[in-house]
Design goal:
Blueprint (H helix, E strand, L loop, with lengths): L3 E5 L3 H7 L4 H19 L6 E8 L7 H25 L2 E5 L7 H14 L6 E8 L1 H17 L10 H5 L14 E4 L18 E3 L10 H12 L10
Parallel strand pairs: 1-2, 1-5, 2-4, 3-4, 5-6
Helix pairs in contact: 1-2, 2-3, 3-4
Protein name: Alkyl transferase
GO cellular component, one term: chloroplast stroma
GO molecular function, one term: ditrans,polycis-polyprenyl diphosphate synthase [(2E,6E)-farnesyl diphosphate specific] activity
Length: 233
């Protein structure tokens, strides 16, 4: 079984359009699907699940859509507290926080503080996250440490780099499996460094329709993969 599964939650807008609903209703359905699936995410010993919910590029979408996303994320954060306590799940949010509303920042801090001591199940939400910016901020941090004499240039290796990435919060920062729902076959600036040897799975099912059976199918597909990491087997 993978230790870390990353999921790009794609297809909320298309699901809403297909069902004759408003975009906001698709966003709400996607949020509820994430809440409903939380228990299933950690079956069979999976430790970390990362959900890519809102990219830095998503700020370019219509303002009313972005505003509603912020409301939805705040709802998700508040709803996760009792659910995380019941299932003993640690919740962490990665990404920039400067541009999100203060009430959402407060909700994020609240759920993180409430669940920080749980171990074995770790839910990471990527909000205003960019893989390129993640790598860039890690490089800047290493450069600053070198400037202060804390490290030497020759000390910088993959391990030091990974310790500066936002996924350093996880015991298993490298995803074994990345699932993108909705049929698109790209990772859209998500976990660029971390996904070098990640197995990529692209089901056509839209995220609000993605259920336990679909998740189990993805895990079964992963188990059938021969992971070589560049080696000849």
């Amino acid at each position: 079984m993978p230790k870390h599964v990353a999921i790009i939650l794609d297809g909320n807008r298309r699901w809403a359009k297909k069902n004759g609903l408003k975009i906001a209703e698709g966003q709400e359905a996607g949020c509820r699907r994430a809440l409903d699936m939380t228990e299933d995410f950690f079956i069979e010993g999976i430790n970390t699940v990362s959900l890519f919910a809102f990219s830095t590029e998503n700020w370019r979408r219509p303002q009313d859509e972005v505003d509603y996303w912020m409301v939805i994320f705040e709802f998700f954060a508040k709803m996760m507290i009792p659910q995380a306590h019941r299932q003993k799940i640690k919740v962490t949010v990665i990404g920039k926080r400067e541009n999100i509303p203060a009430s959402l920042r407060d909700a994020i801090l609240e759920v993180e503080e409430a669940t920080k001591n749980y171990e074995g199940k770790h839910l990471i939400m990527a909000l205003d996250y960019s893989g390129r910016l993640d790598i860039l901020q890690a490089c800047k941090s290493l450069a600053e440490k070198a400037k202060k004499g804390l490290i030497q240039a020759e000390d910088i290796d993959e391990k030091l780099m990974e310790n500066e990435l936002m996924t350093k919060c996880s015991e298993f920062p490298i995803p074994d499996l990345l699932i993108r729902t909705g049929g698109e076959q790209r990772i859209s600036n998500f976990f660029l460094w971390q996904s070098a040897y990640t197995e990529l799975y692209f089901p056509t099912v839209l995220w609000p329709e993605f259920g336990k059976a679909d998740y189990l199918e993805a895990l079964t597909w992963y188990q059938q993969r021969e992971r070589r990491f560049g080696l000849r087997v």
